[in-house]
Design a protein that fits this description.
Radius of gyration of chain B: 20 Å
Radius of gyration of chain A: 21 Å
Oligomer: heterotrimer
Order of helices and strands of chain A: EEEHEEHEHHHEHEHEEHEEEEH
Number of strands of chain A: 14
Helix content of chain A: 25-40%
Chains: A alpha/beta, B mainly alpha, C mainly alpha
Number of domains of chain A: 2
Structural class of chain B: mainly alpha
CATH architecture of the largest domain in chain A: 3-Layer(aba) Sandwich
Strand order of the largest sheet of chain A: 6-7-8-3-9-10
Distance between the termini of chain A: 41 Å
Number of helices of chain A: 9
Number of helices of chain B: 10
């Protein structure tokens, strides 16, 4: 169980990356969404024991991340895939995973070998496992990163943009792998690919400006957008609608947009998706902030 | 197209150049030039205090300047240590230009320091003629720039060039005489042969050979930079 | 302990694949070759004045034919030709050590900065790994590489020196290697790793090395002055190589020098460790 209470993180005494975040995260898949600079990576780094919080508390399976002992305790339970993953270019996958496994505390050589072989198969790198990592493509490097995060059977898995750079098949495979693993552990998934969250998470938080602005099930977020999602044909929507997508079809361009479509008589209401829910939430928050600023 | 939308690529040539120069100045390690200048002028000042130009400041310049110029040249460009190598190679502006600029800034700084030092030395009654003093440091400086730059580019790492600078300068400065006794033909390429040790034409030949070595190796570097595949080091099969 | 040794093992493997170790080995052997050649030249052309009152210059090849009264008491009974050629070994090793000190700083400084340049550091920071294990693993890895190079160079240089200088006292070479060359090589490597540990890129490490280099050279020079007399433990005659008069007191003088220098050499390593450790601690969690 992860308990986060009033967590703040301030860089250089002026940049407030986290601003009173309170969350409780149980076992299962937990999605983290938000625009760039919302504080997701900072939150995950604190949970991974990489950063110390400025104030507030975060307890992970009984380990307080504010203390050195707590952070070491967290790291012993953790599988972590950072957004900017680096690898040693002169090692091959087998060597790199062996190195990481020992650092994670998998000391038994046979157990380590079994785990590494299994993970290499799971991420489909069997054929390339002996090649130096510097010869890998971006997607292959990402898969090595995923494999290292899963080493040591971690109770908490924190993955930041895990599927970026993966081809669609690999993305689906990795998503399914995460869902299978989530039955008896906590997995925190941060991504900009909303589909990854809608397909795998039963619980999510949306962050903005260092705060949690939504916490709940993806279905509830989708429901919030119901009645605000429109298909507008031909005419490009103006500022009152947020354009989500546009599709060139035989009868012209179909614009999918979120917001108030009263000025578009031909607009047809559409079934909302999680992406629409997210866009609606962001638009709603921006409108609220503008209103507050006017008052 | 408004430049704000398209950044440097659509900026006016003047803006582009000023930006490139600024970056070149930063990467050419101004600090090293300041250190060199401080050391050389400190030596001269100490000697001027005694109202004579001692051997220390005559030799000091010819040791300090090539050493620091060599180190700076080693830091100019090493493929594995260049953080934005791929971007540089894909830019419409050839990567050689970047090195031209960095090299120019380096040469201007180091040669400027040397010339000022030589002017001061030449202006003293007990000093040395200006051209003769310039000959002391100019040839080894050009040679060191070429050798160290080539070492960094060829070895792909800055450390190769810096090691060459330190080993060559220190080795020749310390073991100059021993080397000449053991290998008499080395007079052709030893950095610190003194005008009094060799006949004038041999001394000039030594200076000329050093300059040619420096120029040839610098030319080789520019030739190698044309091959972006080699620069990226994509010899091995990629996934 | 397992983690520390694993870091050391992989550090060694990566240094080998980056070709750093091979380059150091080649440089070391080349320097032994060049300096031995220079030493041979000196041997061929020199005459020597043995210590003691009334000594007269003697040709090297005539040393073993000198009458007893022309030889200081403490050097009688020694094969003086062998002793003299061993002096060539001594000067060769000292010259090579200075060059290697520079090369070692340049090629081992990247050990920790490369973790940041390759962006592996965030991954390592998320591991249950203590700062001590990390730093010690890195230092041990570099030392392991230097140890391997030293062993190979010692082996090859024994042959090179025999071929170039002629027969010499092998015990002297072994002792110099173990008690003088090796500790100073390890000292240079350790200092280079620790004192450049806060830089973020290899280029930064090289720049930092330029500041570190004078410190390392100074300490190596101190080490040379204090440890190089270790040969007196084999025979007091070897005190002559460090410009001491070979007699009973020379053993005490040499041991005294070592006793004085050791705290400073070890202290510099400990101070560097503390600096590196403090920096790691400072940046952790910021």
């Amino acid at each position: 169980m992860i308990e986060i209470t009033n967590l703040t993180k301030t860089y250089n005494r002026s940049v407030h990356a986290l601003n009173g975040v309170t969350l409780t995260i149980g076992t299962g898949m937990f999605g983290l969404l938000g625009p760039n600079g919302a504080g997701k990576t900072t939150l995950m780094r604190i949970l991974a024991g990489l950063l110390r919080p400025t104030s507030g508390s975060a307890t992970i399976f009984g380990n307080d991340v504010a203390t050195l002992r707590g952070r070491m305790g967290v790291k012993a339970l953790l599988g972590y895939l950072p957004q900017e993953l680096g690898l040693y270019p002169n090692l091959n996958t087998l060597e790199f995973l062996d190195y990481m496994a020992i650092l994670k505390g998998v000391n038994d050589a046979r157990q380590r070998r079994t785990q590494i072989d299994r993970l290499i198969q799971q991420v489909h790198l069997d054929d390339a496992a002996q090649r130096p990592l510097k010869t890998y493509s971006g997607g292959m490097k990402r898969r090595v990163g995923i494999a290292q995060a899963l080493l040591g059977d971690p109770r908490l898995l924190i993955v930041d943009e895990p599927t970026s750079g993966l081809d669609p098949e690999e993305r689906i495979r990795f998503r399914n792998l995460l869902v299978d693993m989530a039955q008896d552990r906590a997995i925190i998934l941060s991504t900009h690919i909303v589909e990854d969250i809608s397909q795998s998470c039963n619980d999510l938080a949306v962050m903005r400006g260092g705060r949690v602005i939504y916490r709940g099930a993806p279905a509830d977020l989708i429901e919030r957008a119901r009645g605000h999602v429109w298909i507008v044909k031909g005419q490009r929507p103006g500022d009152e609608l947020v354009l989500v997508s546009s599709l060139q079809l035989h009868d012209g361009v179909h614009y999918r947009a979120v917001g108030d479509a009263s000025r578009y008589p031909g607009a047809v209401a559409a079934e909302p998706s999680l992406e629409d829910g997210y866009v609606w939430l962001m638009q709603d928050k921006r409108a609220g902030e503008r209103e507050a600023a006017r008052q | 197209m408004p430049s704000s939308e398209h950044g440097e690529m659509s900026a006016s040539p003047a803006r582009r150049w000023s930006f490139a120069w600024k970056m070149s100045l930063r990467t050419t390690v101004l600090l090293m030039a300041f250190v060199g200048a401080a050391l050389i002028f400190a030596l001269i000042l100490i000697d001027l205090g005694d109202l004579t130009i001692a051997e220390a400041s005559l030799n000091g310049i010819e040791i300090i300047l090539p050493l620091l110029a060599g180190m700076s040249a080693a830091l100019l460009f090493a493929p594995d240590d260049e953080p934005i190598l791929e971007l540089m190679l894909s830019s419409p502006r050839p990567v050689q230009w970047v090195l031209y600029e960095r090299l120019f800034v380096l040469a201007a700084l180091q040669l400027g320091i040397g010339v000022i030092g030589s002017v001061i030395v030449a202006s003293q009654p007990s000093g040395e003629p200006f051209l003769q003093h310039v000959m002391r440091w100019f040839a080894p400086t050009v040679a060191m720039i070429g050798i160290c730059l080539w070492s960094s580019v060829w070895g792909r790492r800055t450390s190769y060039g810096v090691l060459m600078a330190v080993v060559l300068c220190a080795g020749m400065a310390i073991a100059n005489d021993v080397l000449l006794i053991r290998f008499p033909d080395l007079w052709t390429i030893i950095f610190y042969v003194q005008p009094r040790d060799l006949p004038a034409e041999r001394y000039l030949m030594n200076r000329l050979i050093l300059i040619l070595i420096g120029a040839a190796l610098t030319g080789l570097v520019f030739y190698r930079l044309r091959d972006s595949e080699k620069m990226l080091g994509t010899g091995e099969k990629r996934g | 302990m397992t983690k520390m040794l694993t870091i050391a093992r992989y550090e060694l493997l990566m240094a080998f694949r980056r070709r750093s170790l091979v380059i150091l080995l080649v440089l070391f052997l080349a320097s032994i070759f060049v300096f031995a050649d220079i030493s041979r030249l000196t041997n061929q052309t020199s005459v020597i004045v043995l210590p003691g009152e009334g000594s007269t210059p003697a040709r090297i090849e005539d040393l073993n034919m000198l009458p007893d009264e022309a030889i200081p008491v403490w050097m009688r009974g020694v094969d003086l030709n062998l002793w003299y050629r061993s002096g060539g070994v001594f000067t060769t090793l000292i010259a090579a050590l200075i060059l290697m000190g520079i090369a070692i700083v340049m090629f081992t400084n990247e050990s920790i900065p490369l973790d940041r340049q390759y962006r592996v550091r965030e991954l390592l920071d998320a591991m249950p790994l203590s700062r001590t294990a990390y730093l010690a693993g890195k230092v041990l890895g570099v030392w392991g590489g230097l140890l391997a190079i030293s062993a190979l160079t010692a082996l090859f240089s024994a042959v090179i020196l025999r071929a170039m200088l002629g027969p010499y006292d092998l015990r002297y070479l072994a002792l110099l290697w173990l008690a003088f060359e090796l500790p100073l090589i390890l000292l240079a490597g350790g200092l280079a790793v620790l004192l450049t540990s806060w830089t973020r890129t290899r280029r930064g490490a090289v720049l930092m090395s330029l500041l570190v280099l004078p410190i390392v050279i100074l300490l190596v020079a101190l080490g040379i002055m204090s440890l190089s007399g270790i040969g007196v433990l084999i025979h007091p005659a070897y005190a002559f190589h460090i410009l001491l008069s070979p007699d009973e007191s020379s053993v005490e003088v040499v041991i005294g020098r070592i006793r004085h220098a050791l705290p400073m050499l070890l202290g510099s390593l400990i101070a560097s460790w503390c600096l590196a450790y403090g920096w790691q601690r400072l940046r952790e969690g910021r």
